[in-house]
Amino acid sequence: xxxxxxxxxxxxxxxxxxxxxxxxxxxxxxxxxxxxxxxxxxxxxxxxxxxxxxxxxxxxxxxxxxxxxxxxxxxxxxxxxxxxxxxxxxxxxxxxxxxxxxxxxxxxxx
Amino acid sequence: xxxxxxxxxxxxxxxxxxxxxxxxxxxxxxxxxxxxxxxxxxxxxxxxxxxxxxxxxxxxxxxxxxxxxxxxxxxxxxxxxxxxxxxxxxxxxxxxxxxxxxxxxxxxxxxxxxxxx
Lengths: 110, 117
Prior knowledge:
The complex is a heterodimer. Chain A is built from no helices and 9 strands. Chain A has strands spanning 9-13, 18-23, 33-38, 45-50, 55-56, 61-64, 70-75, 84-90, 104-109. Chain A is mainly beta. Chain A has a 5-stranded mixed beta sheet with strand order 1-9-8-3-4, with no helix packed on it. Helix content of chain B is 0%, strand content 48%. Chain B is built from no helices and 11 strands. In chain B, the strands form 2 sheets. In chain B, strands 2, 4, 5, 6, 9, 10 and 11 form a 7-stranded mixed beta sheet that branches. In chain B, a hairpin with a 6-residue loop joins β7 (65-68) and β8. The chains are: A mainly beta, B mainly beta. Chain A binds chain B through residues 30-32, 34, 38, 41-46, 49, 89-92, 94-103, and chain B through 4, 31, 33, 35, 42-45, 48, 55-56, 89, 91, 93, 98-103, 105-111.
């Protein structure tokens, strides 16, 4: 019962913007979109979340389409340290736990 | 403000021994989550606890595994009679309030790598 669909892997050149897509066509009106990442062997790291409006913080920007069926995480100037698995997560009936899917393995190329 | 602290970072146990993994949540956080990550696999939810209560243990194996989060002190994930298949990274996360997918974010520790020999 996948709530989100992400590409398995992506490449991005160092210094360029990394745009990671996520489809969540069955999202409900009160469900948030969350992004986490896991750098190799480390604990997952919260990046950003949003409901309807686009969001920006010191790490990334989150662009949510008007119909909320998809979103894009943008890392504006990717560095080698951004190489990680990125997880897009949508809540399930206000679940109290994060269920991780397979995510997108992002490779930043020098 | 220290982050989520897990110890030990690495733990080696012989088959049949007990493993105790500790997690100290961030200051002010009363919600703790445990995850397991087998080698080259994804993160699997195990259990969600609040102080002195297990809220959701739907991901916990029925035998040998237990978790607690006492009123004072860290949360403990206990694995009895470990087997080689228990070798994995175990991550703990904490949040300040309920709703880690609709209201707040979770902060993860660096994990405990358990190796069963």
